[in-house]
Design goal:
Blueprint lengths: L10 H9 L3 E7 L5 E11 L2 E4 L6 H8 L4 E10 L4 E2 L4 E2 L3 E9 L7
Antiparallel strand pairs: 1-2, 1-4, 2-3, 4-7, 5-6
């Protein structure tokens, strides 16, 4: 993380962030070898994250082929005033947010 002062490592705070939303993004490797990311509704229960997956789906096929994943949630807090500066070719769009990201989640199917 580039801004270490913004990093949240407190387990309770991470749980609060996860509990403040019910939509996350699951990033997996698609059948063509490229990243595949999809929004998923999720619930947190007993320290695990669960999300729906149909028995016959591209998401499940991709997970079976390559179990390496990344799951992330973010909670926007405030948007900052922004504008595009054509002279500098810079967009100063930014926002304050909470974010939780976890790589290499272990499989737990029911």
């Amino acid at each position: 993380m580039r801004r270490k002062q913004c990093e949240v490592t407190d387990f309770q705070k991470i749980q609060q962030i996860l509990d403040s939303t019910n939509i996350g993004r699951l990033a997996i490797i698609g059948g063509d070898g490229h990243p595949y990311i999809t929004p998923v509704n999720f619930v947190r229960y007993s320290g695990n994250i669960y999300f729906h997956c149909a028995p016959q789906s591209e998401k499940l096929d991709n997970l079976k082929r390559n179990p390496k994943v990344c799951f992330t949630v973010d909670v926007p807090l405030a948007y900052l005033v922004s504008r595009f500066d054509q002279k500098q070719h810079v967009c100063s769009l930014s926002q304050f947010y909470h974010c939780v990201r976890q790589n290499n989640i272990s499989k737990n199917r029911r």
